[in-house]
């Protein structure tokens, strides 16, 4: 009988602890989402403000490196072009590689997602270290593909630049964020619970 009472008492304590843990979420539904959205907006504004301050003064030259990398890859593929600072001269078009072409906005979006989302510092670091280079690499692939389209189907180049790749790239960023949540954050939470 005493053993049964101890088990019942332990279950009541466990239920009370569980209720206490969940009570905040039940008492304030949506608070976590609102907090995440506000943090996301603040991080995004802060990153852009920092960039605008330094880019306007000429300290940050985003397009220069991207233009040279893409030009080199296109030349290797046999698509002749020349590059002057951040301007790539192709046979059928001339590109001014601005900061928007460098994936800096997509990187800022991804960084803001990760920093705002409730997860450990380790998860955030892993997401940033693996996600940012992947975004930059996919952007280089995007620009090389646009160079290829510009070379062989110049009439379709603006369609690919303005619509197709924009949509695909944003889907990629969101998919990368969800992948990070599923593979890193959720796995970390699961392993923490099972220990």
Q: What keywords describe this structure?
A:
about 200 residues, mainly alpha, 3-stranded antiparallel sheet
Give a written overview of the molecule.
- The protein is mainly α and 195 residues long.
- The chain has helices at 2-27, 31-56, 62-76, 104-116, 121-152, 157-194, and strands spanning 81-84, 87-90, 94-96.
- The chain folds into two domains: 1-60; 61-195, no CATH class.
- 77% of the residues lie in helices and 6% in strands.
- It has a three-stranded antiparallel sheet with strand order 1-2-3, covered by helices on one side.
- It is elongated.
Summarize the model shown:
The chain is mostly helical and 195 residues long. The protein has helices at 2-27, 31-56, 62-76, 104-116, 121-152, 157-194, and strands at residues 81-84, 87-90, 94-96.
Strand-helix topology:
Layout: H1 2-27, H2 31-56, H3 62-76, E1 81-84, E2 87-90, E3 94-96, H4 104-116, H5 121-152, H6 157-194
Antiparallel strand pairs: 1-2, 2-3
Helix pairs in contact: 2-4, 3-5, 4-5, 4-6, 5-6
- Spatial ordering of strands, largest sheet: 1-2-3
Portion in strands = 5-15%
* H-E string: HHHEEEHHH
Number of DSSP strand runs: 3
Rg over alpha carbons: 24 Å
Which segments are poorly predicted (pLDDT under 50) over 5 or more consecutive residues?
19-28
Shape: elongated
Helical coverage, percent range: over 70%
List the total number of helices.
6
Give the rounded overall mean pLDDT.
Answer: 84
Number of domains: 2
Q: Sheet with the most strands?
A: 3 strands, antiparallel
Between the first and last Cα atoms, what is the distance in angstroms? 31 Å
Structural class: mainly alpha
């Amino acid at each position: 009988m005493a053993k049964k009472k101890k088990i019942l008492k332990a279950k009541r304590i466990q239920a009370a602890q569980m209720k206490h843990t969940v009570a905040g979420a039940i008492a304030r539904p949506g608070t976590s989402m609102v907090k995440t959205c506000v943090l996301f907006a603040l991080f995004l504004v802060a990153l852009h403000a920092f960039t605008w301050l330094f880019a306007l003064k000429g300290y940050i030259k985003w397009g220069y490196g991207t233009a040279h990398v893409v030009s080199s890859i296109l030349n290797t593929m046999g698509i002749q072009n020349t590059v002057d600072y951040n301007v790539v001269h192709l046979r059928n078009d001339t590109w001014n590689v601005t900061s928007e072409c460098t994936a800096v906005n997509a990187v800022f979006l991804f960084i803001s997602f990760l920093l705002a989302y409730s997860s450990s510092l380790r998860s955030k670091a892993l997401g940033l270290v693996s996600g940012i280079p992947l975004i930059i690499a996919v952007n280089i692939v995007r620009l090389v593909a646009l160079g290829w389209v510009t070379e062989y189907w110049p009439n379709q180049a603006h369609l690919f630049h303005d619509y197709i790749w924009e949509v695909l790239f944003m889907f990629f960023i969101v998919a990368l964020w969800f992948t990070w949540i599923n593979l890193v954050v959720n796995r970390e939470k699961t392993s923490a619970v099972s220990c």
